[in-house]
Amino acid sequence: MKLLLVEDEEALRLTLVDSLRQGGYVVEVAATFAQAYEKVRLYQYDCVLVDLTLPDGDGLDIVRTLKADGSAAGVLVLTARDGLDDRVRGLDLGADDYLTKPFHLSELNARLRALLRRRQFQGQHHIVFRDLLVWPELAEVYVRGEPLTLTRKEYDLLLYFLANPGRLLTKEAVAEHLCGDQIDAADSFDFIYTHMKNLRKKLQEKGADGYIRTIYGVGYKLATEDAR
Amino acid sequence: MKLLTATTRYYLGLTLGLFALASLLLYAGFDWALRHEVEELLYNRQLHVQQQVARGLALPDPAYADNLDRSFQPLPLGYSDTLLLDPVEQEMVPHRQLTFRLQPVSAASAPEWVTVRKSLVETEDVLAVVVGVLGVVLALLLGGVVALNHWFSQRLWLPFRQTLVALRGYDLQHHRALGLPASSIDEFRELNQALNMLSERLVRDYESLRQFTENAAHETQTPLAIIQAKLEQLLQAPALQEDEQLATVLGDALGGAQRLSRLHQALTLLTRLENHQFAPTQAVPVALDQLLRERITLLEPLLEARGILLAWRVDSPPPALTMHAGLADSLLQNLLHNAIKHNHSGGRVDVQLTSRFLEISNTGPAIKGDPTQFFERFRKQNAASTSPGLGLSIAQHICAYYGFSITYAFTEAESRHLLRVQFA
User: A GO molecular-function term, please (chain B) (predicted)?
Assistant: First the structure.
């Protein structure tokens, strides 16, 4: 998977590149509008991550260029602006998704996964993780060949974890992912526990025990190998 | 009291006082002059009578001579006033009389006292005419003052009134100075100049404050994003995940950064609302019922975890609103979050949407304090809460932006909080 990251802020760019490369992506970067423009005209990418506020131009123009060229690349808009209107404009112009800064890296991974999955209809479509097999198009999950019945939220949660294998996901990140927005009402994150408990119980019943580990006081992690 | 009324009062008082004094003086003057005239006339008659007698002519007979009396009894000499009966008019008429002693022509004849009189009726008539004329002039003058003031208040004070109207309708959020016109009257011109300068300075200050807020908001999000991303990366370090204490410390730092960022976004939104930075062109027809459904679906996990029952209904037709989609969403989000946040576990939230209003009521403990203050910024029920307490303030600002009214009510019996948004 080849990505182009357009971000002018160096510190953020480096962190994002690190995180994305860990996720197994091939990442190219552009720090300015000019660089980004040149790259999207010359090369093909699976997905372009665009920051809207660039020192020498408007990130939305990159989106426009991509769409005008009929590019197959997915577009994920990153915005430091208080989204509201840019959000709408970006999606109107053909961006596939947006994230408002600051965002969780885990959320970026999940969005990117979902976006790439939606965009690519050729080739294999399933996710394999240890004993798990997931068919995202069908929303079906199997543990060692046995079907696993999950609620929509539990399934959503599982996909989110699968997009971030081995990563520590904070409670806040999980809560935001579940409730779709910045949830200041959830001063306590009770509601994650319920869903986590149920998901774990179901996995455990099918013999996928200890997949999701609790990191006390911080969050959760999908263990890539058996800890025992 | 109007300034004009006040000046008119003083003016009238002074005029009336002066007039009364002038009238008195005039009356006394005329009276004195007329009497003097009468006395002179009487004296002339005295001389005439005396000359006639000295020449040996007979005195006119009182029976035929008008206003002449003769007496052989001594009478007080000099001028005096008396009332005499006018035989024609049959009424008492004031007279001025002069009594003098006639020097007897011969020693044989007895001394004689003669009184000559003059009626004062004519002089009184003259006085009446004078005072009457003065009264009419006074009335005309007073009427003139009132009329002139009326005209003044309409014409001369017009610039002042215009300034007042402009000041009353002045709104700093329009980012415009007052721009009052220059008046031909010095005082008003100076007033308008001073006000213009004041408003220009206000607009400048306001603008720089706004710019600062905007820049601060924008510039802060990026470092915050970096902090958050770096902390998250740091959390991935394997060594850290084994160290519970350190992980907690990092997790707390991350949580703090997120709170700050959330607070920032909320404040930025408020600022943008106050500055009217949502262009009318971005307003679109919004299906509030659909948005409501989406919002409630998103909140389901939260409701479940708290054991809160949310019942909602949409009475058709749903409201036909034209507003910014993001703001409509934010309004619903903030109201719903509020209803969940200030609830107790096992409580209820009831939502009703009609074409004219949106009503969200929730159970929850009574809140101390003035309900009108609930919409203020940073108003928290629980000081320890991590929420910045901007939700209702944002909701109120969005309502004000579109001319909706938002009201809060609390029913003691059911311990229920009710927020109602009335669409225009």
Answer: kinase activity
Q: What residue ranges in A62-139 does DSSP mark as E strands?
A: 74-79, 97-100, 127-129, 132-135
Burial category of B43 from C-beta neighbours within 10 Å (exposed 0-12, middle 13-18, buried 19 and up): middle
How close B310 gets to chain A, by Cα (Å)?
A: 15
Nearest chain A alpha carbon to B253: A218
Same fold, A2-119 and A127-222: no
A117-146 per-position pLDDT tens digit: 877 655 457 888 888 898 887 888 999 889
Contacts of B337 in chain A (CB under 8 A): 183-185
Contacts of A53 in chain B (CB under 8 A): 218
Q: ipTM score of the complex?
A: 0.80
Q: Which residues of A are less than 8 Å from B250 in CB distance?
A: 218
> CATH top-level class for B280-422?
alpha beta
Burial class (CB in 10 A: 0-12, 13-18, 19+), A188: middle
Instruction: List the domain boundaries for chain A.
Output: 2-119, 127-222
Reduced to 3 states (helix: H, G, I; strand: E, B; else coil), residue B38 is helix
What is the CATH code of the structural domain delimited by A127-222? 1.10.10.10
Fold of A2-119: Rossmann fold (3.40.50)
CA of A217 vs chain B CAs: smallest distance (Å):
6
Q: What is the DSSP string of B305-370?
A: HHT-EEEEEEPSSPP-EEEEHHHHHHHHHHHHHHHHHT--TT-EEEEEE-SSEEEEEEE-----S-
All structural domains of chain B with their residue ranges: 3-153, 170-277, 280-422
pLDDT of residue B385: 61
pLDDT-based confidence at B84, cuts 50/70/90?
confident
Beta bridge partners of residue B350, listed in sequence order: B311, B361
Q: Cα–Cα distances in Å, from B84 out to B36, B46, B120, B152?
A: 20, 20, 11, 56
Q: What is the pLDDT of residues B338-367, one digit of tens each?
A: 898 888 888 999 999 999 999 999 998 887
